[in-house]
C-alpha cells in the first residue's frame, strides 16, 4: 500500500536571502539559461517568438549524430518551433551533450524535448537518458505527433553536465531540444540535494488558462501545463495578482496561481495519478483564496490520499500562495492509482480549491 506523510514547508531562515535573489533574477533575465535547438543547421542563434528565449544550434555541444528535419505535417501549433529539427544517433551506445560553465553544488533544471514527427518513417523508439553516470529516465516514444518532455532537477556534481542518450536496441535515440536552467543554491526545490534529484511527473496549472505558462512568467522557466478539467470541476479565477511570502520555497508564478478549480457540485475535489512501483513521490499542492471572506465565512478542507487523512484543515490565505508538501512511497508490486480527495470540513461553508499541482519522483544520485 502507498504511505504518505506531510512535511512542514516553511523555512524562515532563507527570508532575507531570497529577497535579495528576486532582485538579482530580474536584473539578469535569462542568465543561467542554456537553450539548445538540436539538429539545427548553421551557427546562428535565434529568439523564440513565444517565450523570447534565445536558442543556440547544438553543434558546439556535441560532435556525433545526424541532423534531421521532421515531416512538417506533424508540427502542430501547440508544439514549439524547436521540434522542427532533431539530432539522431544511429551510431554508438552512448552519445552525450556536454554543457560547461556549471556551478558545482548549485541546483539546475535540465529538460529534453523529444518530438519524433515521423522523421525516419518509423513510429516507435525507446532509449535511456543518463545524466553523467546516473540513469535519469527511459524515453519511450510511441506517438510521432506527441511532444515528449523529460525534466530533472538536480545538484551539479561537477562544473559541467553530460546529458547522454543511451541506445537500448529499441530504435535510434534522438533529441529535439535541450534546456538547462540555473536554480542556484536557494530554498526553491528544497527537496533536491547532493543525493536526491527530482524527476518531473506532472506540473499542472488548474483552472481555465489560455496557454501553458513558462518563462517569462516563471523566472526558472518551469512549464506549467494546461490541465483538461474534469466535468466535475468548475474553473475560477482572480482578477487580482497572487502574492508570495518572503522565503516562499515554491515561487509559483502569479499567472498560475490566479486560476483554480473547485467542485462543480458537492464538497470534494477528486483526482488520481498512476504511480510507478517502488518510487518515492513528492506531491506539492498550491492554493490561494480568491474571495475576501468575512468573519462568518470560511474555506477549510482536509486532504486525503486513498481515503487516508494526510493533511487536515487547509485554509488558503487571501491572495497569497499557500502550499502543502506530501511525500508518498509506493511499495506495491504493480502500478497503483493514487486517489487524492480534498473535502470541506464540517465547519466550512465554501468548497475546496486547487490552484496548481506538482508531482515528482525522487531519483537517488551518486
Ligand atoms: C516568428 O514569427 C514570425 C511571424 O509569425 C514568423 O514569420 C517567424 O518565422 C517566427 N520565427 C521563429 C524563429 O519562430
Ligand atoms: C509526411 O507525413 C504525411 C502524413 O503521414 C505523409 O502523407 C507524407 O508522405 C509524409 N511526407 C514525407 C516527406 O515523408
Ligand atoms: C514502450 O511502451 C510500449 C507501450 O506502452 C510498451 O509496449 C513497450 O514495452 C515500452 N518499451 C520499453 C522499452 O519499455
Ligand atoms: C536529501 O533529500 C532526500 C529526499 O528529499 C532526503 O531524504 C535526504 O535526507 C536529504 N539528504 C541530505 C543530506 O540532506
Ligand atoms: C474569470 O472568471 C469570470 C467569472 O467569475 C469569467 O467571466 C471570466 O471569463 C474568467 N476569466 C478567465 C480569463 O478565465
Ligand atoms: C458575511 O457574508 C455573508 C454573505 O455575503 C453575509 O450573509 C453575512 O452577513 C456576512 N457576515 C458578516 C459578519 O459580515
Ligand atoms: C482509487 O479510486 C478508484 C476509482 O474510484 C478505485 O477503483 C481504486 O480502488 C482507488 N484506489 C485506491 C488505492 O484507493
TrEMBL record:
It is a single-pass membrane protein. InterPro entries: Malectin-like_Carb-bd_dom (IPR024788). The keyword Membrane does not apply. Keywords: Signal. GO terms for cellular component: membrane. Its main location: membrane. Residues 36-362 form the Malectin-like domain. It holds the Pfam family Malectin_like. It comes from the Eukaryota. It is found in: Membrane. Residues 1-29 form the signal peptide. This is Malectin-like domain-containing protein.
